[in-house]
């Protein structure tokens, strides 16, 4: 049986390569809406960020999501990311 390849992606904050399952994907849809992509398959431009509160806070301070997605990202999305990480830490 063939061994499956594990997808590797890069965090936009730490520039670290990690397994795709260890990162959160944020997507800008063709309509310009920015959302958290839990499935990893939504259409649009996607960026990855570590499941780490510190990385999310750095991204918020430096406006990294806005720069990479080329659209204004509201602070509510950063709060949603933090809440998601806190809920899934257990």
Quick overview:
With 90 residues, the protein is an alpha+beta fold.
Write up what this structure looks like.
Helix content is 32%, strand content 24%. It is of the alpha+beta class. The protein has one domain (8-87): Hypothetical Cytosolic Protein, Chain: A, CATH 3.30.1230.10. A three-stranded antiparallel β-sheet has the order 4-3-5. Strands 1-2 form a two-stranded antiparallel ribbon. It is globular. The termini are far apart. The mean pLDDT is 94.
How do the strands line up in the largest sheet? 4-3-5
Order of helices and strands: EEEEEHHH
Number of contiguous helices: 3
Largest sheet: 3 strands, antiparallel
Question: What does the average pLDDT come to?
Answer: 94
Give the helix proportion (percent range): 25-40%
**Shape estimate:** globular
Q: What is the name of the CATH superfamily?
A: YlxR-like
**How many beta-strand runs?**
5
| CATH architectural group | 2-Layer Sandwich
Task: Identify the notable features of this structure and list them briefly.
single chain, Hypothetical Cytosolic Protein, Chain: A, two-stranded antiparallel sheet, 24% strand, 5 strands, alpha+beta, 90 residues, 3 helices, globular, three-stranded antiparallel sheet
């Amino acid at each position: 049986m063939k061994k499956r390849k594990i997808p590797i992606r890069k965090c936009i904050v730490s520039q670290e390569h990690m397994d795709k399952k260890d990162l959160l994907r944020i997507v800008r849809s063709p309509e310009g809406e920015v959302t958290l992509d839990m499935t990893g398959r939504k259409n649009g431009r996607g960026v990855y960020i570590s499941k780490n509160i510190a990385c999310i806070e750095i991204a918020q301070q430096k406006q990294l999501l806005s720069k990479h997605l080329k659209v204004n990202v509201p602070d509510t999305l950063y709060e949603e990311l933090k809440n998601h990480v806190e809920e899934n830490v257990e």
